Amino acid sequence: MLYQIYEMQRAMVEPFADFAQAASKFYNNPHSVFSQVPLAQRMAAGFNLMYRLGKDYEKPEFDLHNVEVNGVDVTIRERVEIDKPFCELRRFKRFSDDPETLDLMLSQPVVLIVAPLSGHYATLLRDTVQSMLGGHKVYITDWKNARIVPLSEGEFHLDDYVNYVQEFIRYLQGRYGQCHVVSVCQPTVPVLAAVSLMASRGEVTPLSMTMMGGPIDARRSPTAVNNLAETRSYEWFENNVIYEVPNNYPGAGRRVYPGFLQYSGFVAMNPDRHANSHYDYFKDLIKGDEASAEHHRKFYDEYNAVLDMDADYYLETIATVFQEYKLVKGTWEVRNEQGKPELVRPQDIRNTALLTVEGELDDISGAGQTRAAHDLCAGIAAEARQHIEVQGAGHYGIFSGSRWRKTVYPQVRDFILSHQPASATAASAAGHLSSVSDDGPELESNEAHADKPVKTAKTGQNSAPAQKGRGSHRARA
């Protein structure tokens, strides 16, 4: 009933939020008589803050329309390459009519960014994507809100997450010959599992994998997140944070960990910081500091937008990663697309370079949790492994903000380039300058489907158009 109560409360607050927004405009508009009354600026600021505290936050857009590549402004076109029940593989395709820039883009590495499925949308990595678009062909996993996924699409488990990642890697390998993988926070665990399973089967693995601020070994330097998972039983989580989606959503009846409960947990970790931030916003509005106010709005438009997670996936993650430590103990078995269990063996990875990144002040994934991947991936040569500790950076600072752009990204870029062999560059650049995009020329069979995402079943099998696209790109390369 909690979900239904929340929806009722939200419906009741919505008219007041709309009223607060209108009142703020009345007091702030210089053409309104209300703007001439005493304390009008304070009234406008107060109503604006009330509106933002009460409004509903929808999924944000990436809103990336151009990027600078080697000093030249390049156009970005966003599209969905693969549409799966719980995730979209989203691509940011770059276009330029400058021959030298196009030549450069054609030769740049292909990167799959695996975004977290842990409350916020993939747009939380907007800064990560924007930086990497300057030197890479970028794809990202855009996870769907479980409350909009109908029950007819089936369940979603941690195993499905791992299988999705493998499918996306194979798709990029089929299209370009190779790829690199970057995972941020939560997906470091399923990404390591996905690459491990591919290595154990003898499949071609990514050229490199970059793991940033993730709980590979949650036993090290436990944080408040780890302590909560350890002190509460699996049954406690199932009984206290899992609810059914109400009837007013497409996913009605699906068991989920609701986004509003996750958001409450985020805020509870640093309540004073959020209270001070909102008070500073109020003061900025009074002072007329629009730049600072807009910075606040952009951050909280992202931070306040949360999604529901499928209950099976969430509970299995709690048990596997934070309670039983199956990955580091070598006991984790993942069911493949055919339903057969396979043991996750990171020691089987040999041909994929490994970079781990941690923030000195990370209060989500403690020191050493991500670095533990090096101990597990003993089969990777020492010269193909690297670790970065970002001084003064918290959890978000390692993938967003000035520290990411000035300190972390240059090292990630150089690491990826150092493990980009000439053969992979040649395959990526096949077709050379016959096209205005970073993908080279498209064969006629692909042009007809250029803007149509490949829809796949829950099992992770590619449909016929996807296989046709793979074959065409192989022929081109």
From TrEMBL:
Tell me which stretches of the chain form a coiled coil. Answer: none
Cross-referenced InterPro entries: AB_hydrolase_fold, PHA/PHB_synthase, PHB_depo_C, PHB_depoly_PhaZ
Signal sequence interval, chain numbering: none
- For the region Disordered, give the residue spans: 428-477
Where, by residue number, does the polypeptide cross the bilayer? Answer: none
Write down what this protein is called.
PHB de-polymerase C-terminal domain-containing protein
Q: Name one Pfam family in it.
A: PHB_depo_C
Q: Tell me which residues make up the PHB de-polymerase C-terminal domain.
A: 213-418
> Which lineage do the record's taxonomy fields give for this organism?
Bacteria, Pseudomonadati, Pseudomonadota, Betaproteobacteria, Burkholderiales
Matches recorded under NCBIfam families: PHB_depoly_PhaZ (TIGR01849)
